[in-house]
Amino acid sequence: MKETNLTFSISNWYQRHLALIFAGLVALQLLLFYLIYRNPWVEQAIFTPLVNFYALLAGKVLAFMAFANSVSGDMISSSEFAVSIKKGCDAAEPMAIFIAGIVAFPAQIKDKLSGLAIGLLILFFLNIIRIITLFIVGVYAPDFFESMHLAVWQVAFIIVAIVLWFLWLKYVSSKRTKS
To answer: What are phi and psi of 59, to 5 degrees?
Structure first.
């Protein structure tokens, strides 16, 4: 009889503390992310090529938009302005928040994978748009570059990641209701 009470108590505790468990899982994943993100090998093997790829894509889009530029590594430059894409400008943190929210939430793996694929693609392309707009601001309104870079786009990116998670959550919840 005590086993049943113990099982019931653990189950009952778990049900009453779902939000706490979710928050703990998200926090644990973000801690793990930062431990990995700060690793010099990971930076060299993953994030340096990633920011170089962002620069290459943004440079091509800028050229298509008639902004003459050259790309070298993580640097996009023109005669009017140059921007270097560094760690922190790689969208990794908003992506980590988004991933942590989806992974920590109890849902079917198929829903998690589709949510991750769509959300991460959106955040990836949003970062390209971010880099392009920052370059254009640097060319036409350089006094506003730092504000756009540190205040507007940083906050907007985190908000978009959270909104994407809420949209995924709404989708998963609506599937549960239909079942």
So the answer is: -60, -40
Residue for token pair 């709404």: 170
Answering whether pTM is above 0.85, one says yes
Three-class secondary structure of residue 118 per DSSP: helix
Backbone angles phi, psi at 27, to 5 degrees: -60, -40
Cβ proximity of 118 and 50 under 8 Å? no
pLDDT digits (tens, 9 = 90+) for 85-103: 998 889 999 999 999 999 9
How far apart are alpha carbons 73 and 60 in whole angstroms?
13
Using one digit for the tens of pLDDT, what is the confidence trace for 96-155?
A: 999 999 999 989 999 999 999 999 999 999 999 999 999 999 999 999 999 999 999 999
137 near 92, Cβ under 8 Å?
no
Q: Which residues of 35-50 are buried (b: 16+ CB within 10 A; e: fewer)?
A: eebeeeeebeeebbeb
- Three-class SS of residue 136? helix
